[in-house]
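Reminder to self: C-alpha coordinates first, then the designed residues, so the page reads top to bottom the way the pipeline ran.
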Protein backbone atom coordinates (compact mmCIF):
# COMPACT_ATOMS: atom_id res chain seq x y z
CA UNK A 1 0.00 0.00 0.00
CA UNK A 2 1.37 3.43 -0.97
CA UNK A 3 2.09 5.99 1.73
CA UNK A 4 -0.42 8.83 2.09
CA UNK A 5 0.02 12.24 0.51
CA UNK A 6 1.02 15.12 2.76
CA UNK A 7 1.47 18.89 2.75
CA UNK A 8 4.56 20.81 3.80
CA UNK A 9 3.67 24.47 4.39
CA UNK A 10 6.44 27.09 4.07
CA UNK A 11 5.68 30.44 5.68
CA UNK A 12 6.97 33.83 4.57
CA UNK A 13 9.48 36.42 5.76
CA UNK A 14 9.10 37.44 9.45
CA UNK A 15 6.38 34.81 9.80
CA UNK A 16 6.07 31.43 11.54
CA UNK A 17 3.93 28.29 11.81
CA UNK A 18 1.52 30.52 13.80
CA UNK A 19 0.64 32.44 10.63
CA UNK A 20 -3.01 32.78 9.70
CA UNK A 21 -2.73 30.65 6.54
CA UNK A 22 -0.63 27.91 8.17
CA UNK A 23 -3.07 27.57 11.06
CA UNK A 24 -6.09 27.67 8.75
CA UNK A 25 -4.71 24.95 6.49
CA UNK A 26 -3.62 22.79 9.43
CA UNK A 27 -7.03 23.15 11.11
CA UNK A 28 -8.84 22.43 7.83
CA UNK A 29 -6.91 19.18 7.44
CA UNK A 30 -7.35 18.23 11.11
CA UNK A 31 -11.13 18.72 10.85
CA UNK A 32 -11.11 16.11 8.06
CA UNK A 33 -9.03 13.63 10.04
CA UNK A 34 -5.90 14.51 8.04
CA UNK A 35 -3.98 16.43 10.68
CA UNK A 36 -1.10 13.97 10.53
CA UNK A 37 -0.61 14.84 6.85
CA UNK A 38 0.38 18.46 7.58
CA UNK A 39 3.74 19.88 8.60
CA UNK A 40 4.90 23.47 8.94
CA UNK A 41 8.50 23.84 10.10
CA UNK A 42 9.93 27.00 11.60
CA UNK A 43 11.93 28.64 8.83
CA UNK A 44 14.83 30.68 10.22
CA UNK A 45 15.43 34.13 8.71
CA UNK A 46 18.73 32.90 7.18
CA UNK A 47 17.75 31.60 3.71
CA UNK A 48 20.08 28.58 3.54
CA UNK A 49 19.05 27.58 7.07
CA UNK A 50 15.38 27.97 6.09
CA UNK A 51 15.82 25.64 3.11
CA UNK A 52 17.74 23.16 5.29
CA UNK A 53 14.85 23.19 7.75
CA UNK A 54 12.38 22.51 4.93
CA UNK A 55 14.58 19.74 3.55
CA UNK A 56 14.75 18.11 6.99
CA UNK A 57 10.94 18.17 7.13
CA UNK A 58 10.77 16.67 3.63
CA UNK A 59 13.03 13.79 4.62
CA UNK A 60 10.98 13.14 7.74
CA UNK A 61 7.90 11.73 6.06
CA UNK A 62 6.76 9.04 3.69
CA UNK A 63 4.47 9.47 0.73
CA UNK A 64 4.03 12.17 -1.86
CA UNK A 65 4.63 15.66 -0.48
CA UNK A 66 3.15 18.79 -1.98
CA UNK A 67 4.64 22.09 -0.90
CA UNK A 68 2.45 25.08 -0.09
CA UNK A 69 4.49 28.26 0.09
CA UNK A 70 3.39 31.80 0.85
CA UNK A 71 5.41 34.86 -0.20
CA UNK A 72 9.08 34.06 0.56
CA UNK A 73 7.92 30.53 1.37
CA UNK A 74 6.72 30.37 -2.24
CA UNK A 75 10.21 31.28 -3.44
CA UNK A 76 11.64 28.45 -1.34
CA UNK A 77 8.87 26.07 -2.45
CA UNK A 78 9.72 26.63 -6.13
CA UNK A 79 13.40 25.89 -5.51
CA UNK A 80 12.55 22.71 -3.58
CA UNK A 81 9.91 21.64 -6.12
CA UNK A 82 12.43 21.81 -8.94
CA UNK A 83 15.23 20.18 -6.93
CA UNK A 84 13.12 17.25 -5.72
CA UNK A 85 10.51 16.94 -8.50
CA UNK A 86 7.62 17.97 -6.24
CA UNK A 87 4.36 19.80 -6.83
CA UNK A 88 3.75 23.15 -5.16
CA UNK A 89 0.96 25.59 -4.41
CA UNK A 90 2.36 29.12 -4.48
CA UNK A 91 0.38 31.81 -2.63
CA UNK A 92 1.33 35.38 -3.61
CA UNK A 93 4.91 34.11 -4.11
CA UNK A 94 8.00 36.31 -3.92
CA UNK A 95 9.20 35.75 -7.48
CA UNK A 96 12.07 38.25 -7.26
CA UNK A 97 12.99 37.64 -3.61
CA UNK A 98 16.64 38.80 -3.76
CA UNK A 99 15.65 42.14 -5.28
CA UNK A 100 12.70 42.61 -2.93
CA UNK A 101 14.55 41.69 0.24
CA UNK A 102 17.67 43.67 -0.69
CA UNK A 103 15.53 46.68 0.20
CA UNK A 104 14.78 45.17 3.61
CA UNK A 105 18.34 44.70 4.89
CA UNK A 106 18.31 45.65 8.57
CA UNK A 107 16.67 44.72 11.86
CA UNK A 108 13.29 42.95 11.86
CA UNK A 109 10.97 41.21 14.32
CA UNK A 110 9.03 38.02 13.76
CA UNK A 111 5.32 38.87 13.48
CA UNK A 112 4.30 36.07 15.86
CA UNK A 113 7.15 35.50 18.29
CA UNK A 114 8.48 39.05 18.49
CA UNK A 115 12.01 37.64 18.16
CA UNK A 116 14.28 40.21 16.52
CA UNK A 117 16.89 39.39 13.91
CA UNK A 118 19.18 41.12 11.45
CA UNK A 119 18.62 40.50 7.75
CA UNK A 120 21.93 41.14 5.99
CA UNK A 121 23.46 41.48 2.54
CA UNK A 122 24.86 37.96 3.06
CA UNK A 123 21.27 36.72 3.40
CA UNK A 124 20.39 38.43 0.11
CA UNK A 125 23.36 36.65 -1.49
CA UNK A 126 22.02 33.36 -0.13
CA UNK A 127 18.64 34.08 -1.74
CA UNK A 128 20.44 34.48 -5.07
CA UNK A 129 21.88 30.97 -4.61
CA UNK A 130 18.29 29.71 -4.38
CA UNK A 131 17.10 31.28 -7.63
CA UNK A 132 15.38 28.76 -9.86
CA UNK A 133 16.50 29.38 -13.45
CA UNK A 134 13.56 27.49 -14.97
CA UNK A 135 10.30 26.18 -13.61
CA UNK A 136 8.29 23.18 -14.76
CA UNK A 137 4.85 24.76 -15.19
CA UNK A 138 2.82 21.59 -14.57
CA UNK A 139 4.24 21.29 -11.04
CA UNK A 140 2.46 24.44 -9.82
CA UNK A 141 -0.86 25.84 -8.71
CA UNK A 142 -0.40 29.61 -8.53
CA UNK A 143 -2.73 31.67 -6.32
CA UNK A 144 -2.45 35.45 -6.57
CA UNK A 145 -4.51 38.43 -5.55
CA UNK A 146 -4.17 41.52 -7.72
CA UNK A 147 -4.34 43.83 -4.69
CA UNK A 148 -1.11 42.48 -3.18
CA UNK A 149 0.58 45.61 -1.84
CA UNK A 150 3.99 43.92 -1.37
CA UNK A 151 4.48 41.93 -4.58
CA UNK A 152 3.52 42.54 -8.19
CA UNK A 153 1.21 39.65 -9.09
CA UNK A 154 2.08 40.08 -12.79
CA UNK A 155 5.63 38.84 -12.10
CA UNK A 156 4.18 35.60 -10.73
CA UNK A 157 1.78 35.23 -13.66
CA UNK A 158 4.67 35.61 -16.11
CA UNK A 159 7.07 33.39 -14.14
CA UNK A 160 4.54 30.55 -13.83
CA UNK A 161 2.95 30.92 -17.28
CA UNK A 162 1.46 27.59 -18.29
CA UNK A 163 0.79 26.52 -14.72
CA UNK A 164 -2.66 26.22 -13.23
CA UNK A 165 -3.44 29.76 -12.02
CA UNK A 166 -6.17 31.27 -9.90
CA UNK A 167 -6.19 35.06 -10.04
CA UNK A 168 -8.42 36.92 -7.58
CA UNK A 169 -9.21 40.58 -8.17
CA UNK A 170 -8.46 42.75 -5.14
CA UNK A 171 -7.26 41.25 -1.88
CA UNK A 172 -3.85 41.91 -0.37
CA UNK A 173 -0.53 40.26 0.46
CA UNK A 174 -2.08 38.16 3.23
CA UNK A 175 -4.26 36.52 0.54
CA UNK A 176 -7.73 37.16 1.88
CA UNK A 177 -9.27 34.49 -0.42
CA UNK A 178 -7.30 31.66 1.20
CA UNK A 179 -10.21 30.16 3.21
CA UNK A 180 -12.47 29.71 0.20
CA UNK A 181 -9.70 28.13 -1.88
CA UNK A 182 -8.83 25.41 0.65
CA UNK A 183 -10.81 22.74 -1.25
CA UNK A 184 -8.89 23.49 -4.48
CA UNK A 185 -5.60 23.41 -2.58
CA UNK A 186 -6.40 19.98 -1.12
CA UNK A 187 -7.49 18.70 -4.51
CA UNK A 188 -4.20 19.84 -6.07
CA UNK A 189 -2.31 18.24 -3.15
CA UNK A 190 -4.20 14.97 -3.80
CA UNK A 191 -5.77 14.89 -0.35
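Designed residues (191 positions):
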Amino acid sequence: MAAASRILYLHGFCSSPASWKARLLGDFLAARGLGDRFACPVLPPVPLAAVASAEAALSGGAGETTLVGSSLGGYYAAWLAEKYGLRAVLVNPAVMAPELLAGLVGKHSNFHTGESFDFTNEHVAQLRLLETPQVTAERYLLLVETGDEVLDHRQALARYAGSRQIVIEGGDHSFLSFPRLLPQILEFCRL
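Residues 47-59 form the longest helix (13 residues).
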